[in-house]
Amino acid sequence: MTNDQNFVPNDHEEPEESGQETADQHSQVNEDQGESTDQDAAPQLTELDEALLKVAELEENLARRNADVYNLQQEYNGYVKRSKAEGRVQYENGITKVLDTLLSVLDDAALAREHGDLDGPAGTIVDKLEQTLETNFGLVRYGAEGDEFDPELHDALMNETSAEVETQHIAQLIQPGYRQGDKVIRPARVGVISPE
């Protein structure tokens, strides 16, 4: 006998393959039917439902836009307030700078007045300048001998003690001070006498 005669075909292999193919096909059919069943189970939206969904979406968009506009208005209002406040500060700083520049002129005018050199038209002009600065900008000269010493208003360059005084006060005015309202432009430079 030859080897060909001993060969016996395996009949069981083919049916297993065909059986497996059949099972795969059957499961595929079931899956396809399941999908169609799931699609059939999904509720269909009516025109009214779609319109209501659209209205809800539009209302949400409108609420968001209204919130954006409100936030923008608040931001703008804050910007306007900050701008006005900063503008006012810059205005005040400008006035202070001009007044500070004029202090040396006012000091010279005060010295000339003390020595009697400020008579006639020149004296009138200086008086008018000082009145204008006080009226329009609140610039006031301060500091005199005998005034009570205040470290926030006066700059003490000298200090003496005496048994005759009970409180610190100005014994000598070296240079007058200037203030604009409550704001000190330049403190008065003074000599102070204190109790022992």
Automatic annotation (TrEMBL):
Q: Where in the cell is it found?
A: Cytoplasm
Q: Which CDD domains match?
A: GrpE (cd00446)
Q: Region Disordered: which residues?
A: 1-48
Q: Which PROSITE patterns match?
A: GRPE
**InterPro entries in the record, alphabetically?**
GrpE, GrpE_CC, GrpE_head
Using the record for this protein, list the coiled-coil segments as residue ranges, or answer none: 48-75
Q: Does the keyword Signal apply?
A: no
Polar residues bias: where? 20-31
Mind listing the UniProt keywords for this protein, alphabetically?
A: Chaperone, Coiled coil, Cytoplasm, Stress response
Question: In UniProt terms, what function does this protein have?
Answer: Participates actively in the response to hyperosmotic and heat shock by preventing the aggregation of stress-denatured proteins, in association with DnaK and GrpE. It is the nucleotide exchange factor for DnaK and may function as a thermosensor. Unfolded proteins bind initially to DnaJ; upon interaction with the DnaJ-bound protein, DnaK hydrolyzes its bound ATP, resulting in the formation of a stable complex. GrpE releases ADP from DnaK; ATP binding to DnaK triggers the release of the substrate protein, thus completing the reaction cycle.
The record's subunit annotation is:
Homodimer.
Name the protein family: Belongs to the GrpE family.
The protein depicted here goes by the name Protein GrpE
